[in-house]
Every structure is written in structure tokens, then in C-alpha cells.
Design brief:
- This protein has 148 residues and is mainly α.
- The chain contains five helices and no strands.
- The longest helix has 31 residues, at 87-117.
- The N and C termini lie far apart (86 Å).
Length: 148
């Protein structure tokens, strides 16, 4: 695929000025997609980091740290698979994604519960506090009755 045909398919990749060097002959649309996916993954990971620093409480920080990070990882792994399409890479990517998707929500859940139980949560930011209801119900059920 020539640089002219790439410029027709993806106008943003066309040289902006006459003095710019042409695109390499082996440049393809796949390379552009890989670059976009890597930039997307980097942006999402940066957004996760900024959210961890900027959000006010533990639960919001956990949300900011887990959601964009996993999506960023998916974007980078998709870019790797597009760049090196082989069965070995595919199986490795499936394993990485499986472990991330299984462990990330569970880790965030356990950290959130630990933060809640140690009063590191801003309760004014909670919309519906279901955990407090469950804890109160469990305490009522395990408390000794007055009839004994």
C-alpha cells in the first residue's frame, strides 16, 4: 500500500506540508490502528491515575482506578494482537484478560469493604448505603435476646 493510498483512506495521516517526508512504503492502516489503540490505552491509564489523585474518597478512587485501567489494558492488548497476530500471543492475551477481569473487581470490592468497615468512606457521598443495612441486620440477628 503506497503513501498516497493511505492518505486517501486516512486523510489525517496525509503530510500537512510539502516539506514533510512521505510516509514509509511499509506503513499500513493496521499500523495506524495499532497506534490509536496504544494511545487510547495510555490515555485511559492516565485517566485512572488522575482519578485516583483527584477523587475525594476511597470508593470513588477505586472506581477511577479499576474501570479505565482495565479498558486501557484491553486497548493495548488488542494493539499487540494486531501487531503480532499469532496463536501464542492470542493465548497469552486471553490469559492476561481473564486474570485481570477476575481479580480487578474482586480486589476493588474487598478494598471497598475494608475501607467501609474502618470508616475511611465519606458517607455523605453515598447514595444508597446497603452495606449499613446488612451489617445492622446481621448484628440484630447475632445479638442475644432478652428472653434468655
Amino acid at each position: 500500500m503506497s503513501a498516497a493510498s493511505v492518505a486517501l483512506l486516512v486523510p489525517a495521516l496525509a503530510p500537512a506540508a510539502e516539506g514533510m517526508p512521505p510516509l514509509p512504503e511499509d506503513f499500513s492502516v493496521r499500523d495506524a490502528i495499532v497506534g490509536v489503540l496504544i494511545l487510547l490505552g495510555a490515555f485511559l491509564s492516565l485517566a485512572a491515575g488522575v482519578g485516583i489523585v483527584r477523587f475525594p474518597d476511597v470508593l470513588s478512587r477505586l472506581h477511577a482506578g479499576t474501570k479505565p485501567q482495565v479498558l486501557g489494558l484491553v486497548a493495548v492488548l488488542a494493539a499487540i494482537l494486531l501487531e503480532v497476530p499469532s496463536w501464542g500471543v492470542l493465548t497469552t492475551i486471553v490469559l492476561i484478560l481473564t486474570f485481570q477481569l477476575l481479580t480487578q473487581p474482586m480486589t476493588a470490592h474487598m478494598l471497598g469493604r475494608a475501607a467501609y468497615r474502618t470508616d475511611h468512606v465519606r458517607r455523605d457521598l453515598l447514595i444508597d448505603d446497603e452495606l449499613a443495612d446488612d451489617i445492622a441486620r446481621r448484628e440484630r440477628a447475632s445479638a442475644p435476646s432478652d428472653d434468655d
